[in-house]
Amino acid sequence: MADPLSRGRPKAERHSAFALAAVLLGFALSAPARGAPPAGLLAEIDRAVAEEMAAGGEPAVSIAVVRDGRLFYAKAYGRARLAPPLDATPAQAFAIGSVTKQFVAASVLLLAEQGKLSLDDKVGRWLPGLTAADRITIRQLLSHTSGYRDYWPQDYVTDFMMKPTTPDAILDRWAKAPLDFQPGEAWQYSNTGYTAAARIVEKASGQPLDTFLEQHIFEPLGMTSVRFIDRTATSADGPQGYTRYGMGPPRPAPAIAAGWIWGAGHLAMTPGDLAKWDEAMIAGRILKPASWRAMETSVRLNDLRDAAYGLGVRATSDGSLRMIEHGGEISGFKAENRVWPDEGQAVVVLTNTDRGDPGAVAARIARILAVASAPSPAQTARARSFLEALQAGRLERDRLTPTARAFFDPTVTADYIESLSALGAVTSFTGVGLRMRGGFTQETYVAKLAKGDVLVIVRADGDRFEQFQINPPQ
To answer: pTM for the complete prediction?
Structure first.
């Protein structure tokens, strides 16, 4: 499946009339964490989801929110099926795509705890015959640093995926081909690596992967809704997955034949059950503390660059709050799972379209809960002052890297200054996102000005800007 960590929402995909109508059909289940919810908080979440559905055009969105380490709110909005109409409910299992990978990684860690394997085992101990199997480790499979080429980089279901396959057939074709890079030299998303990791779970445990998951994770946590979509058809009262071609209408998404998503994205569950896993992450259940640390710690490449990815999860921070995150994308479905372990909070968002943006929904909810990953006050102040200097007709070149100084030639500088000065004074400057990109911090801000709003996307190397881009608001 496509890399779920790099998906955005094109502005032209907004279908507000449909989504705003659909959101009125929501069903809710709330379980206050400690006392009654703050007045208006649940209504604020509902309003945020409605607005994001209006922008993203999802037929249905189903969420779960964890506060103080336990389920606080679960609600489904919109239509699980468009024709005949079927309302979405919190009891329906949605495909979670690549969020599956953290369960495979957890299985490997459990087997390591049992002494049946080591993260530093060479792949060749378990899967001899694969390319560079004597040099690639299990840890590199789980962190996407192995060099094995991804078998599904496309954002659509390919023709060959309409025919059944097996995990070993995938490995024979993609994991016996030349590497995309030498082990540990780069980070590149690879479903192939997780197919190999899942096969290692089976070989080391002596059990089918799904049996191991049920016995060691799902049953102990009471996750009763889990469905293995690689071998189980969606029930008539479950959600239909939708896609769109170009700017056309939502259409039932094509089915993927058996074998293709096993180990890489073959799980479906309710948001509430995924929240049970998040609760376990927060409380440190199922895995030992050292195993949770291994999963949640970003790996280093051979040259010591930070990959910003642990084992089956993205490991990030806004400078003050740790966030463990992963998205998922499968034909007809998208998912987003964000956990702030130190804060005891998590947000799960599942949708039944592969053209929606559950990350945007999760970010809105996180801001309401005051745990959103966002630039620090110092980063925000630096970016705002640079913007205001441009409005005043000054390009502060000493605050730019050499690459950025070369970019800001006379034409670029004149366009920035002229267009920004025409918008009037900055009335607010809010950080809405923070991540790593290419060794730089990527900071995203919404700047409200007297005569219009702009989206500011900054990439910084410490105190200096590698990029200072101004876009129309999305």
So the answer is: 0.76
Residue range 418-462, pLDDT digits in tens: 999 999 999 999 988 776 666 677 888 999 999 988 999 999 888
Whole-angstrom CA distances from 319 to 171, 362, 372, 433, 467 are 39, 19, 11, 12, 20
Neighbours of 98 (CB within 10 A): 27
Q: What are phi and psi of 292, to 5 degrees?
A: -60, -40
What are the residues facing 447 on neighbouring strands? 429, 454
Are the beta carbons of 109 and 117 closer than 8 angstroms?
A: no
d(CA 384, CA 429): 7
pLDDT digits (tens, 9 = 90+) for 50-61: 999 988 889 999
Q: State phi, psi for 450 to the nearest 5 degrees.
A: -60, -35
Domains of the chain: 1-372 (3.40.710.10), 377-471 (3.10.450.590)
Q: Give the C-alpha separation, 95 to 117, whole Å.
A: 30
CB 456 within 8 A of CB 386: no
Nearest alpha-carbon partner for 61 in 275, 239, 251, 263: 239
pLDDT tier at 236 (50, 70, 90 boundaries)? confident
What confidence tens digit (pLDDT) does each residue in 153-189 have? 888 889 999 999 999 999 999 999 999 999 999 999 9
